[in-house]
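Example A, followed by Example B.
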Amino acid sequence: MTSAGSTVEDAPATRFARRARAVIPGGVNSGQRSVPGLTDLVITRADGARFWDADGREFVDYHAAFGPPLLGHNDPEVAAAVAEAGRHADLCGVGVTPGEVELAETLAELVPSVEKVLLTSTGSEATFHALRVARAATGRRLVVKFQGCYHGWHDSVSLNVISAADRVGGKDPISTGILPEVLDATLVLPFNDVTAVRRTFAEHGADIAAVIVEPVPHNVGCLLPEQDFLQALRDETTRHGAVLVFDEVITGFRHALGGWQSISGITPDLTTMGKAIANGYPVGAIGGRADLMDLFSTRPGAPAFFAGTYNGHPAVVAAALATLAKLRREPVHEHVFALGDRIRAGLAEVFAELGVPSVVTGYGSVFVSYFMTGGVPRGYDDLLRNDVSMFVGYRRRLIGHGVFELPLNLKRSHVSYAHTEADADRLVEATRAAVKETLASGEVAELADASTMGGAEN
């Protein structure tokens, strides 16, 4: 949006973006924020289910920062708790605060696997420490992860997320600069493949320190786990003395207060958490069996080093406590689950009316539409059939209708407590229009850059 007589080059967003690129590499502070076709997006305000850009455009937000604001942007109760914490507490970097104790007690009460817990600043840090302590506990080298699962930026797991077809089945790092011997210590298996799990443990069980898994791989949209697959992970890790890690950074609190483990009944040894735990404030956590958690150096003399200047910052602890209190007190999950069902049903109807091959799937407040034939995908190989041009193309055109879903391949979308039935219906109707426009216009440009989580050469 520009004023009369102005040009795109004069628009506030364009000017801010130009300034950003001059001093910030690529103009953004995370690689997943540099989106082809949206390189001049500058966000100035967010509230409830919406955000606004520097040119004054308003968007109903279903991207939701990859999922943290389950309550909606700038939830007033969370904001008030953070402000109150700032009036009487600050980061002192020694000892413990009452808030940290209360948050740890709350997490131990809510999440089945958690006997003891430590706070981090990000989910990536939590998964890093989970693998470190698993190796410390077992004295073993190997880690097992699954194609399509993302566990953060650290070297042991920075591979095989969104991979091209010719990179599936081999090592597909998402970054250069990783030592080959680190990549070699990570075994990548197909998700939902019990046979592959059992075969791998038969061959390498004595040297496997940990299995780490997103119980629902949401970094590729939504692959729902089969119960026998999760049970096989529990059985094999127990049998061979390895550590089972559930990465519930996404699934935790968004799908249930006890995470996916409370839904599946499969209890891991360690759980990593983040995102929805504090409605967007930067906090993560690692919790689990007391004997494993006691190996961290927060207990004097323990062998696995653990530190972080901002761990347990009073502001983020207050945000987490306020978020969890509201999740327990109000019908948040009932609301977002109902809207998720409404959206999935509406989208499926639209695609059927337009004759577009599609699979609309998700869980609770998470939804995603894959453009392909066949049933609900069970593994990453199934997602290779997704029509990337349609997936990215219609999402780019949604933006013109004031609705935002991230226009990157396979990315999921989220409902918050601040969304309404009217917002859900607007999404469905905007999707109808955007898909029609995409069908009329054909493929979109720049699709070679629509996936940014694979293909690095080491």
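Example B, a separate protein, is given below in the same form.
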Amino acid sequence: MQTTATPSLTPEAAVDRLEAIHAEACEALRAALKRYAESGVPPTEEERAGFRYPELRVTWEPHGKQPFTRRAWAKFQAPGVYATTVTHPDHFRTYLLEQLRPLVDEFGATLQVRVSDQEIPYPYVASSGDEFLHGTVEVSELARHFPVPLLAAVGDEVADGAWDFSPGKPRPLALFDAVRVDFSLKRLAHYTGTPWTSIQPWILLTNYQRYVDQFVQHGLSELAREGGRFTRLMLPGGDTVTRKDAADEALAKVKAAPWERFQMPAYSLEREDGHGVTIVNIGVGPSNAKNITDHLAVLRPNCWLMIGHCGGLRQSQVIGDYVLAHAYLRRDKILDELLPPEIPIPALAEVQVALQEAAARVTGERGEALKRRLRTGTVMSVDDRNWELRFTQERRRINLARAVAVDMESGTLAAQGYRLRVPYGTLLCVSDKPLHGEIKLPGAATAFYARAVGEHLRIGLETFGLLREQLVSLHSRKLRSFDEPVFR
């Protein structure tokens, strides 16, 4: 059931209205589920009409001179009406206000909020998935009376530029609508073992648990530091370490965290200003890399960085050297249909400069000394861990690309950042040189890990420290198209 829209809401009033509609709909859906589990009474058609997401509409009718902004987001590509459904507006309040305020202040846009036609699937209002039903009701039975997730209603057409413009219908306001966001929020909790609300806007992605171990040590040190800005460390399984925890209690919580139960465990270090850091062990391979970033993207993070290991492809490289990716030879094949390999993935200047400066600060090396340890160039990302066994087929391609390193995830993560408009970067550490007889042996690997992982992690964290000061330019126009949605 649609309500009469209120014209010309302020951004704050619009978000308040979004929160009220969403909370009312979720509460009504929870109450109906509880009643059905207890008494078998299904919702009426009128009740079911209340299980719907709120819709946000923004209208721009330009008058006089058009406003100009160098900002890559929160601006209009054309006059008209833009709309999207919204979920969890209370959590996304800061993000929503950041997008709406410039649209009203600079462009004179009008805002409306109403109940949409898009139903909220019942699993999305439960935190544990079965909290109302207690195993007493079959899923097939619920599907007859309650909204269920429909894959036909979930897609990335807007992000992939596949949406159809129809006269008289609103243009997309955001990359993801409410049902797409809710779909991913549930997946994030499943894969990472942490509540999606704990994931921070600065994200490190790695393929080795040793980086996670170093991140946890860093987090515990920060929490114990007098005057530090970090407030808590959130662990897989839901437990949390705070400043109030004694050292032995904090270590006990970390050791007890059941990270092995989750495919891609995440640890989040929260800051008092909201600019905390999350690290996710995505495992190995491009499929995992695409999977997790498909879902992380709905949170609209400020940046994700890949920090992991690679094979060095040049004789001059030394194990422990760094590779800063300026380009990607995409042999991962996972995104070829969505983002064809001939589409260039640009390096983002802000991220590249920050990574290089962070490396200089952490290593203490600059100029020629830093150049000896930090190589820039093309990274080849493959879908076959044993690509060396077909080197005769790959040799010419590596030569043509001038590739300096090989891994399995970086190209996918960069392509996903480009595709889903999330700033991205890659800094890898050479762990072996497969073309030059320096393969990864157990003894040498152990010594390498002990020496290199901590420094590498600190470079990633220092990079985020530098990027926090340049958010407007970080969300680059390189990531935007000519018919881009209004929201970042």
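On Example B: The chain has two domains: 11-177, 189-479.
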